[in-house]
Amino acid sequence: MTTDYDLVVVGGSFAGLICARTAAMRGLKVAVIDRRREPGAAVHTTGILVKEAAEEIDLPPDVVRRIHGVRLYGPSLASIDLAEPGYYFLATDTARLLRWLALDTAMAGARLCYGTSYRGACYEEDRLRLRGVDITTRYLVGADGARSAVARTFGLGLNNQFLQGIEAHVPLDGDMAPNLLHCVLNRRLAPGYIAWAVPGVETLQVGLAAARGVKPDLDAALAMMNRIGGIDTSQVLERRAGLIPCGGPVRPFATDRVLLVGDAAGLVSPLTGGGIYNAFRYGRRAAQAVSDHLLDHGPEPSRVLAGEYPGYGAKLMMRRAMDHVVGDRLVDMMLKTPWFAEAARQIYFRPRGLLRGVKLASAFRPSTVSRAAR
Length: 374
What we know:
The chain is of the alpha/beta class. It has a domain at about 5-55 and about 95-160 and about 245-315: FAD/NAD(P)-binding domain (3-Layer(bba) Sandwich). The chain has 10 helices and 18 strands. The chain has helices at about 15-25, 50-55, 95-105, 150-155, 220-230, 275-295, 300-305, 315-325, 330-335, 340-350; strands at about 5-10, 30-35, 50, 65, 70-75, 80-85, 90, 110-115, 120-125, 125-130, 135-140, 160-170, 180-185, 195-200, 205-210, 240-245, 255, 260. Strands 1, 2, 8, 9, 10, 11, 17 and 18 form an 8-stranded mixed β-sheet that branches. The protein has a 7-stranded mixed β-sheet with strand order 6-5-13-14-15-12-16, with helices on both faces. A 3-stranded antiparallel β-sheet has the order 3-7-4. Helix 1 runs parallel beside helix 3 and helix 1 (about 15-25) packs parallel to helix 6 (about 275-295). The protein starts with a strand and ends in a 25-residue tail after the last helix. About 45% of the residues are buried.
């Protein structure tokens, strides 16, 4: 027997759950499908929330840990401390946070279908029919990650630039300052990105990311953090790995009754790799626009979001500089200059200030659907 929904969200991580929760609270009949067996399984992200993300939704205190600044290291491990009055980051127990968010989404009225794979969809009069399951929907949102299958089905834009990230969780001990994010600029170890140590809720999260095609050396990152803070690297309690989109928003991100959010839409900062804030913000905005459209004959949701999705223009230019220009010796020379410290503060503490990107143009392709979807 076919079940009809107003909205089906493919992907049950941050963007998908926030989208489904908001839409259900607005009165839509909503389902989330995700191939993972349960929420919080196979986590790929470090799970750091910037202050703006924490302000999007009230979170239970037992799954987060507040951090008030950044210690930024050069390749020689000389460092500067950065902070901004009133600003903070939240380290998270990401799996527990996702389980809490999934429960909250279900309590709002959405149906959660974990262990259900997305196998494609096709148009059927005024609805979309999902293949392999007896589900139809009036609107479909792809929140299914950097390699979005929804995008492939409907011929939408695909992420084509990535960083490869890997992380290990070790015991939370040693001499690492517990109230700081520890970030290391080292082109030999992490070309195009950084290595990091995050004092988390119950563990120290040590990781790095590198440009695609370069295998991140996690053992080298652990050894370096041991030099910095005397951490215990003999016990690895958990490992995570995944792709981080770094090419900016995909184009087009929407077509007839289908749109992308989160990593699927490329809404990840090309410079910092942060995406959870945009997952919260634009997952919610997508749900609001869809509900306005379906319940109150509001404008097409993709046209609303085309004026709101970030463009990351300046950060994309800085990404290219990180990839091709800035070498280790130059970083060490610049590290303690006032202008470098100010630029770093803008990156870490003022995401909507100096480095705000241009708006996304040509994001919507009306009534253009791949043959596979038809």
